[in-house]
Amino acid sequence: xxxxxxxxxxxxxxxxxxxxxxxxxxxxxxxxxxxxxxxxxxxxxxxxxxxxxxxxxxxxxxxxxxxxxxxxxxxxxxxxxxxxxxxxxxxxxxxxxxxxxxxxxxxxxxxxxxxxxxxxxxxxxxxxxxxxxxxxxxxxxxxxxxxxxxxxxxxxxxxxxxxxxxxxxxxxxxxxxxxxxxxxxxxxxxxxxxxxxxxxxxxxxxxxxxxxxxxxxxxxxxxxxxxxxxxxxxxxxxxxxxxxxxxxxxxxxxxxxxxxxxxxxxxxxxxxxxxxxxxxxxxxxxxxxxxxxxxxxxxxxxxxxxxxxxxxxxxxxxxxxxxxxxxxxxxxxxxxxxxxxxxxxxxxx
Amino acid sequence: xxxxxxxxxxxxxxxxxxxxxxxxxxxxxxxxxxxxxxxxxxxxxxxxxxxxxxxxxxxxxxxxxxxxxxxxxxxxxxxxxxxxxxxxxxxxxxxxxxxxxxxxxxxxxxxxxxxxxxxxxxxxxxxxxxxxxxxxxxxxxxxxxxxxxxxxxxxxxxxxxxxxxxxxxxxxxxxxxxxxxxxxxxxxxxxxxxxxxxxxxxxxxxxxxxxxxxxxxxxxxxxxxxxxxxxxxxxxxxxxxxxxxxxxxxxxxxxxxxxxxxxxxxxxxxxxxxxxxxxxxxxxxxxxxxxxxxxxxxxxxxxxxxxxxxxxxxxxxxxxxxxxxxxxxxxxxxxxxxxxxxxxxxxxxxxxxxxxxxxxxxxxxxxxxxxxxxxxxxxxxxxxxxxxxxxxxxxxxxxxxxxxxxxxxxxxxxxxxxxxxxxxxxxxxxxxxxxxxxxxxxxxxxxx
Lengths: 349, 448
Known about the structure:
heterodimer; A: mainly alpha; Cytochrome Bc1 Complex, Chain D, domain 2; two-stranded antiparallel sheet; 15 helices; 6 strands; 5% strand; disordered N terminus; B: Sulfite Oxidase, Chain A, domain 2; Immunoglobulin-like; 3 domains; 5-stranded mixed β-sheet; 5-stranded antiparallel β-sheet; 9 helices; 24 strands; globular
């Protein structure tokens, strides 16, 4: 009898766990997504190109788009290090043959660019499509994305200047991608099934093995690196980053002058910082674009300076200060644009 | 003790601000009694008898202060409470030069002044890829679909109203950016624990186990072994999560953080919680979950968040945060007040489970003592450790070394670099060293 009831219990548990797998099991919660909804949001492109939209774009068209929409952050040739790390450079014809970027192991690379790292061309397509340009993500049509990617491939010397990239030939690009063989998943840091069980990695086996030694663990203490002097002050007054009471004090790193209250930041300066203006324009120094004081000295004697500058900041532009274009800033409210321009014209203080 | 100013009882805050130039000179020439008088003058209504009484003891005891002798403020003066005005030093801060645009930057949590294991929501570290938004929850949707119709019977859409009706779980977990301590792979670069370890926070998260949603949509676990999580921000950040973690019930679609809704900077109104895994996988402003039969190689797992090894290969899909610890008090950029007793305190955590033991060394790693762990010790959560120390005024090097329940012991810099070199950027879990010199100043050093 005892044995029998246990069997029933096991059966009941099994039944319950089966029920948990039934679908639509939270009555009244959620609804079916429409095909149009799934299409609107399901924009990811996988390494096997699942999800890749149809389309094509030429290197020429890509150059045009790149200069208009991308160069302000990435430089005309995708080489700029001003705002983000460079997109192209550091790869060779030989890397295209081997699928391993040699500079990564030889230490010759001054800096890793996107194309020295990426092993899957789908990644670049997916990311441009979902997140670029910086201030207007998802505004590019598939043909635009193909064109911009074609231009980047040309800059990387992977395709000729008359190349047209499309959903039909992107697979050929994968075969010549310079670092396509440059990834390994043979490590213990994937939290799912191991490669041996159809997943990724070694099943969680760590690559270091320290011991919890307690006494006389070594004979000498070797300090390999200490805080450089410049780094002691690079983060401001450390005294002010700790409580003025308790078991310790912040170390006074800047001396007396830092004791004075920090200058109040103007609301316009805050707005310029928040909206990314300061990434390209300094108050006194040229970064990617002109400094605010350079703008001021050019426009200060023009009676319609305010209106003209508001229009320029809003629409973006190119040519006045050089070939690197400024992206449009249609996302800013007119009143905010006016505040920013007034601030620039009053010396950006 | 250097230029540390002592306070009531024994120590007092810097009085320079209310001394006249003549008074400063008087102090400088050695008339220290003058300083005490000035302090009294500024602190309360000046009265000659009080000065006389100061010799009898601490004036903060002998004379009741204003808050003891007057009416305080009414309830709800601050309908949403804020920290004391004396707590303005502990703020999220950026590391100068780390990023050029604030929308793709990091702000670090001030670990040097926090207690226990919960990070106040307003001090939780931030990492955004394309800026943050304050999303209208009535317009936010979560979609669950499959990369293929055969992986999921019915793609569904959920509103916040619906998600918050579902069975919820509340759990305390740490979140650490994969690049935490990344500035220090090659050598010491930054002065304080805020910048060495401050891409680390710990909260109680409340939400719906993701497996409930996938099962509600009719997932086929046999075929769908990966999950893609996608955000609703401009970058629509995406990461691949292993289905094993989802099936375990650990992965939450969270809306709550420390008893209230998530903060906008932390993903309001929905974020993924992937315990033990680096922060980038905890997709904020979560709008879509896709189940798939292959990993996705998204930008943040194919261009960034990949670990460069000495061979020139990059490790891809490295996700777990291995056992790590750091002493937060005292730590770099701080100065000890005096010789004598200190409660040395710090944090330990492991992406592989619970912390089992933390050992602390005061001599740069020659000898170690086991610290007290403050319980309850939780799975994949910060664990606070404390240990007594009497500082004799001599130079010392303080270190902490965590061991987790798998028996894994946090590595030294020498051990870590022997395997991974110095250019990895990500997943630096080496033992941190703080050097104390005779003046009491603590600074960041690396011991192999």
